[in-house]
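step 3/5: co-fold with s-citryldethia Coenzyme A
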Amino acid sequence: MENTVTIIDNRTGKQYTFTDTHDTIRAMDLRNIKVAPDDFGMMSYDPAFMNTASCESRITFIDGDKGILRYRGYDIADLAERCSFPQVAYLVIHGELPDAEQEREWLAALRIHMGIFENIKKFMEGFRYDAHPMGMLVSTLAALSTFYPDSRHVRDHETQMHCIRRIIGKIPIIAAYGYRHSKGLDYISPEPKLGYAENFMHMLWDRSPLEHLKHPVLARALDVLFILHIDHEQNCSTNAMRAVGSSEADPFLSIAGAAAALAGPLHGGANEEVLKMLDEIGSIDNIPAFIQGVKEGHHKLMGFGHRVYKNYDPRARIIKRTAEEVFEVTGRNKKIDLAMELERIALADEYFVSRKLYPNVDFYSGIIYEAMGLEAKMFTVLFAIPRAVGWLAQWQELINDPAQKIARPRQIYTGYERRKLPDSYTYGAPSEESLAYTR
Ligand code: SDX
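step 4/5: write tokens
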């Protein structure tokens, strides 16, 4: 049977046949469905893009029903177990795992960019002491655009790669500086001889009472967590990266938009919300009442549910395993027991089972970060650091895709028809009376 679908327009009796590639039809082909020849033609309506492919991509594959996640064809569990974050970052950006020479080059290139201009440090000092680290990260990523005007040549391959290396090298520096600023501490310069995750921990905790948290087991746990968070198809923040990037805004401005989207509590901000939720529940005895509150719509079970996964998020499974290794070093974070009991109860409850709600990547990650001495307001920043790799790979794929152009969705207008402006509106300078008015 040929790969086509046929639609009959019952308004006209006309038949339209569409080619079906990858089990999709091109939305623009719907415009051929008209009643009168000069009609605009039919559109599809899909709020939140629940069933709309915005691009073709070769980066990440998810099978939500089977709980499968692969970067460039490699299964996430294999990558997390046998690779380092820089190796997987190279894979996601370049499409292939690095050989020894390519890995040396890559690490050297990232090290060159592990530094930021003194002006940027001063820029960050302008934030209030209690500024949220995600607000500092989003703003500073955008500010970097003003230091690298060459980055606006987005279609030049070398410029793309230069910006990609710059941002992957600099984002942990900015994140660590934001953390130190929020603690009222001096910035710690990066130590390029350290690994990517180790260097980040060095910049957080060197010369601090928390120095014990630079333990190699914790550094590897962070490396694994970074791998798990690199990319995830066309999620909300990646969609933002592609939308902003499609206007040919430079990658610093585009990634600031992506990081802003990630900060939302329904997206990357969920890991921070999970800890608040566990603190609010407090003890296992309070779980039934909390679950009842979820069913009555008073609150969500944060860290549960997913647009794509209708099965266990494979990343949550790996994070849960990593938690035990972290607790060997830090001591058991009691919240893991509460979280596991919450999961056990929820997975047996019809409300969650019927809606296919399972733990997602955010359910356990915050518990590990807290055990590592990090505060909840840093959790989404820890999501953004590795996700910068995925955003940049997706951005580069978009820019180099001849099928893409500036993103500009349509709408269904449901507002007023033309209305006449009331005669009482004739422009004039504000009256003395209105200027003097105070509430
Ligand atoms: C991330 O997209 C990605 O890939 C994201 C991410 C990535 O790596 O980039 O995986 C990272 O963002 C993970 C998700 C983190 N967010 C949370 O944990 C917040 C809590 N989760 C929900 O807000 C929700 O599950 C979403 C936002 C994640 C998904 O929302 P959808 O796909 O729009 O699903 P929905 O809101 O339409 O829910 C379907 C039903 C609804 O019930 P009914 O109206 O049908 O009765 O399930 C219910 C929802 O009320 N539901 C929940 C729930 N999630 C969905 N009910 C209680 N608690 C929840 N967490």
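step 5/5: annotate
The beta strands are 4-9, 14-19, 60-63, 68-71, 74-75.
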